[in-house]
């Protein structure tokens, strides 16, 4: 079974062979047409001019001029088609790249929006945490509850770390441990 790549290669080879056969047939017809239409019996009796140049000779010569003009026209057409194909390919590539760039831009915009939303949520949470102080209950010794202000963050369990200060300072902490409280 032929694969798609093999089929495309086979089609291209067939087109090349067909083109070669047609070109060879055109050359044979051209040579035969020029050689069989030469001599005195095939002289052009009514002259004509092209761009002010008077064409004289035999019908074979005229046929040869026709072949040359046709070949030049075919070459011009081939160049035109080649340029159009190249331009079309460039346009297609540019469209594909623009489409990819739009996709990337949309993805980047979604990422920016998501990050901005996360940032907004974090700022909101931080503002809420600053305006709502956490209260700590007093130990059984009768000291008043203290308000803690974190200076180094919280531990994974949610409690404040040991470098926190209370509203009464480090002296109050020392007093808590000894059982002495200030009134």
Residue stretches low in confidence (pLDDT < 50, at least 5 long) are 161-173
Helix/strand order, N-terminal first: HEEHEEEH
Record the strand order, biggest sheet: 3-4-5
**Class by SSE composition:** mainly alpha
Distance between the termini: 98 Å
Largest sheet: number of strands, sense, barrel closure: 3 strands, antiparallel
Shape: rod-shaped
State the helix count.
Answer: 3
Strand content: 5-15%
Overall pLDDT score = 76
What oligomeric state do these chains adopt?
Answer: single chain
Q: Radius of gyration over alpha carbons?
A: 47 Å
| Range of helix content | 55-70%
Number of strands: 5
Give a nutshell description of this structure:
This protein is mainly alpha-helical and 183 residues long.
Verbal overview:
- The protein is mainly alpha-helical and 183 residues long.
- The chain has three helices and five strands, in the order H-E-E-H-E-E-E-H.
- It has a three-stranded antiparallel sheet with strand order 3-4-5. It has a two-stranded antiparallel ribbon with strand order 1-2.
- Strand 1 and strand 2 form a beta hairpin.
- The protein is rod-shaped and about 125 Å long.
How are the secondary structure elements laid out?
Elements (H helix, E strand, L loop, with lengths): L3 H33 L11 E3 L2 E3 L3 H73 L2 E3 L9 E4 L15 E2 L2 H10 L5
Antiparallel strand pairs: 1-2, 3-4, 4-5
Helix pairs in contact: 1-2
């Amino acid at each position: 079974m032929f694969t798609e790549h093999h089929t495309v290669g086979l089609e291209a080879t067939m087109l090349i062979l067909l083109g070669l056969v047609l070109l060879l047939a055109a050359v044979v017809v051209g040579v035969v047409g020029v050689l069989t239409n030469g001599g005195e019996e095939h002289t052009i009796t009514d002259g004509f001019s092209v761009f002010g140049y008077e064409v004289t000779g035999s019908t074979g010569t005229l046929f040869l001029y026709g072949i040359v003009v046709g070949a030049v026209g075919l070459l011009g057409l081939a160049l035109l088609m080649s340029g159009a194909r190249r331009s079309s390919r460039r346009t297609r590539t540019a469209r594909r790249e623009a489409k990819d760039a739009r996709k990337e831009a949309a993805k980047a915009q979604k990422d920016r929006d998501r990050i901005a939303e996360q940032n907004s949520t974090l700022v909101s949470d931080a503002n809420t945490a600053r305006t709502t102080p956490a209260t700590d209950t007093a130990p059984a010794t009768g000291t008043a509850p203290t308000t803690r202000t974190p200076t180094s963050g919280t531990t994974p369990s949610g409690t404040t770390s040991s470098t926190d200060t209370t509203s009464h300072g480090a002296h109050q902490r020392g007093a808590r441990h000894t059982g002495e409280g200030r009134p």
